[in-house]
Design goal:
Blueprint (H helix, E strand, L loop, with lengths): L2 E11 L5 H10 L4 E5 L15 H9 L3 H5 L5 E2 L1 E5 L4 E4 L9 E2 L3 H14 L3 E4 L1 E9 L2 E9 L5 E10 L6 H6 L3 E5 L3 E9 L6 E7 L2 E8 L3 E9 L3 H4 L3 H8 L4 H8 L2 E2 L4 E3 L3 E4 L2 E2 L2 E3 L5 E2 L7 H20 L5 H27 L6 H10 L3 H11 L5 H4 L2 H11 L1
Parallel strand pairs: 1-2, 1-10, 2-7, 4-13, 10-20
Antiparallel strand pairs: 3-6, 4-5, 8-9, 9-10, 11-18, 12-15, 12-16, 12-17, 13-14, 14-15, 18-21, 19-20
Helix pairs in contact: 1-4, 1-9, 2-9, 9-10, 11-14
Bound molecules: flavin-adenine dinucleotide (FAD).
The site of flavin-adenine dinucleotide has 36 residues, from strand 2, strand 8 and helix 9.
């Protein structure tokens, strides 16, 4: 037996970085929103959870930054890229948002779910969506169940898939996929105590090994080590060995981590890279469900926040009659793609472990010691400055000329 319930304006499937803010923003505009997730909160998920200053600015705009700060999450004001012969050390900050944070997902996602609830969203956690329902080519709702309970159906004008990389909504509507690239790197991370970072994000580039470390809650430091995806199978049998061996390429860091203690098990991932058309009749996609990329530049959470704002605005504009659904959602897709495609290409390049060209090596050398250029590079990594702008002939010429 299936119970059919009342119609909602919007059903959002998935309640983490993309889903909870989308639901919250729509509820704040007065819509009737149902938010569903098979997880319960607080709970962890695979993610190294660095939020660049732009994402932090979004939390502030939503009135949620103070809540994050009250959890004693350490701030990060410097990004230091250790290239071997020298370190490029800059500030990723933007006006009004000078620092980054890396809150544990147990903290961040719960904060976002609570904010959605306070905005009036109806939330069901521990609820699995089993099926996306359609009529005459348009999505009309979902069928799902709470643990041990009978299935229920719920209907809405729009179903938003915020259900991550393996999105059921996307698998059901099979949207056009573009700019695909296979997994490029495999990486593993763990949390360490006794490895103080003093407000720094440190990244190390050593040929076919790259790693990074940054502080999070509870005086812990997250350290992630990556290698080319081609080594994934060979290395997975002894992750700890390959993870620790990488540090031999930077003895000063190796000495620091030798004095530290690993507090949690290794977690790892290798993900595909793709864009999906994020809308169609009765449905939309936000976050990883609509656009996924390697995590090496830590863009996912900030991107999910941006999607929530853009998609929420588009749904509101279509419900209020300002634009048709297609026109409003096309604007969402265009704004998303325009903003992220250059960073996507930069991210994939980074994740492919291709050695820098001689021109690029020369540029890095010229950047060293030029604070403005190093800040600029930190902001490219943080997804603020477009790589197209930073690596433009004009800017590169300026940096090289300043180096003499
Ligand atoms: C190793 C790794 C490191 C990363 N590090 C960073 C980083 O440092 N900074 C950063 O910004 N990004 C990082 N990312 C990316 C970031 O974690 C994601 O972009 C972000 O979590 C996407 O949020 P989301 O809400 O779209 O999806 P998710 O966080 O995946 O949430 C999807 C939710 O949907 C729910 N769900 C799925 N299917 C169903 C269903 N059928 N029924 C009910 N519920 C369902 C799931 O339970 C889940 O809670 C990293 C990713 C990886 C893999």
């Amino acid at each position: 037996m299936t119970t059919t319930n009342n119609k909602h304006d919007v059903i959002v499937v998935g309640a983490r970085c993309a889903g909870s803010p989308t639901a919250m923003l729509l509820a704040r505009k007065g819509y009737k929103v149902l938010l569903l997730d098979r997880a319960t909160f607080p709970s962890d998920t695979i993610s190294t959870h660095l939020i660049h200053p732009q994402g932090v600015a979004t939390l502030k705009r939503w009135g949620l930054l103070d809540r994050l700060l009250s959890t004693a999450c350490p701030s990060i004001d410097t990004y230091a890229f250790d290239m071997g012969p020298f370190v490029l050390s800059g500030s990723p900050g933007i006006e009004g948002s000078p620092v980054s944070y890396a809150p544990r997902r147990t903290v961040l996602d719960k904060l976002l779910v609570d904010a959605a609830s306070e905005a009036g969203v109806e939330i069901r956690t521990g609820f699995t969506v089993d099926e996306v329902l359609s009529e005459n080519g348009a999505v009309t709702g979902i069928r799902g169940h709470s643990k041990g309970a009978l299935p229920v159906t719920e209907h809405a004008r729009v179903v938003v898939g915020a259900d991550g990389l393996h999105s059921l909504v996307a698998r059901t509507v099979t949207p056009e996929q573009y700019l695909d690239k296979p997994p490029l790197e495999a990486a593993y991370y763990a949390y360490w105590s006794g490895l103080p970072m003093d407000g720094r994000f440190e990244a190390y580039d050593r040929g076919d090994r790259a790693w990074a470390a940054w502080p999070t809650h509870d005086d812990l430091t997250l350290v992630i080590v990556g290698w080319p995806y081609a080594e994934f199978e060979a290395n997975k049998a002894d992750v700890e060995h390959h993870y620790l061996k990488a540090f031999e390429r930077a003895p000063a860091f190796e000495a620091r981590i030798r004095g530290a203690r690993r507090e949690e098990r290794f977690l790892g991932a290798a993900v595909p890279n793709f864009f999906r058309k994020p809308f169609g009749p009765g449905w939309a996609l936000v976050g990883d469900a609509g656009y996924n990329k390697d995590y090496i530049t830590a863009q996912g959470i900030s991107d999910a926040f941006r999607d929530a704002e853009l998609c929420g605005t588009a749904i509101d504009e279509s419900f209020s009659g300002k634009h048709t659904f297609d026109v409003a959602m096309q604007a969402y897709q265009s704004a998303r793609d325009e903003h992220v495609i250059p960073t996507y290409e930069f991210t994939c390049q980074f994740a492919s472990f291709t050695p820098p060209t001689p021109e690029m090596q020369r540029l890095f050398g010229a950047m060293h010691g030029n604070q403005e250029a190093m800040n600029g590079f930190a902001r490219v990594y943080a997804g603020v400055t477009s790589p197209a702008t930073f690596f433009s002939e004009e800017n590169v010429g300026r940096i090289l000329a300043a180096a003499g």
